[in-house]
Structure formats: structure tokens, C-alpha cells
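note to self — DONT lose this again. spent like an hour looking for the file last time. sequence + predicted structure for the chain T wanted, 244 res
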Amino acid sequence: MQIDFGVSTSQGRVRTSNEDSYAADLANRLFLVADGMGGHAAGEIASRMAATAVEQFVAGERTVAGSLGELLLRAAQAANSRIYDAQCHKPELSGMGSTLTALALSDSTYHIAHVGDSRAYLLRAGVLDQLTRDHSLVWHLFENGMLGKDELSSHPQKNLITRSIGPHLNVEVDIECGEAHEGDTFLLCSDGLTDVLSDEDLRQKLSNADASPQQLGDDLVREANARGGPDNITVIVIRIRPDR
């Protein structure tokens, strides 16, 4: 399996800082996006701690026997403990937290660890699937038929998430897995992208086979900013190509 990827991030056109963080570790086939929350720069601290903790944990444990799903679960729990401990020792960081959407690839499978409302998508044979479910109030309303998916980004409580890394001693982590095929394109992104671009917008952009993953990521961020850029935007595009 050969992997190409691109990363693009922007603070957007409204926010004065970027509280998103990411990791892209090709050697360990690990990619992740984290979107922080909390006042006085705590969000930026939380997302960076989450990204660093997961990247370090996976790098240290990847060769240990066990499933990728179990590895990602333990990595997410380690990140949660690190952030929780930090705010216990520094009251000014109280309440800080972060989303986490992490993708790890093997030769034939993908595994995802997910907490919060950042997202993972898979484009395969022209069809775009959202691989994660948002841990948010509006997603709960959507799943119960009380909102349409196109209404999520305009709801006044769209930013109220129900699960995050760090605020509590324990965290529930969603683990998703599936087969990885040649030609697959994965997208990891913070909600600064999906609040302004629809799934169809994403599908059309990602379907440009002539563009590199870096070009696709840059184009997605550029388009989000063109539509107002109300939030931080972070995008990782990962494409699997045939072995040469």
C-alpha cells in the first residue's frame, strides 16, 4: 500500500487564533485532527496535547501485538488522561477539552478513534460516506428525525458537543473499522469545514482525481474561507494508491 496525503489548516476569517491541531505520521500510517475548546488559549493547548499524546503513544506501541482499534482506543484514553491531569494541576485550564478523530491504516484495513464533532469521510468509487457520528446535541436531534442534515450547521446550538477528550476522568471513544482499498480517499476535518461545505460539496472536491491530496486540502480550506471562514479549518486528505 502506498499513501499520499496533504494537510491544510487556517484560523479562518473570524477567529483570532487557531485552536485546531493535527498529526500526520506517515511512518506509522497515523493521521488525526483535534479541535480544542476552552478560554484563555486553553483550547489550543488541549488540542495540541491530544494530538501529541496520540502520536507519541502510537509511535511507541505500534509494533506491540494487538489490533489497531485497541491501539487507538488506548491512545485516546492516554490523551484524555494527560489533558485531565493538566487541568487538575492548573485551575486556569479547567474545563479545557478537544475533539479527536484519528485514522490508522494497515495494509488492508482502516481503524478510526473518534470523540467529538470533527469528522472522517471515505470517498470510494465516487460515493462519499461519513465514517463517524458527531457527538453533539444537533446530531442527536438529526438521528432522532428532528433536524435535517442540512440544518445542522445553522442551528443555534451547533457547537454544543456531548463528548470530548479531557474534561472528565474517563472518556467513551468510538472505534470504527473497515477494509482499505486502492483508490480510496479519506478526509479528516474539523467542523470549520463541514459547517460551511455540504457533503455534496466535499464529494465533488474530493472526486478531482487530477489533484494531489495537498491540492485537494488547500482547495477545501480556500473554499471554506471563501464562504466566510467562521471557524478554524483543518483538513487532512489521504489517498491510497497502488503499489509500484
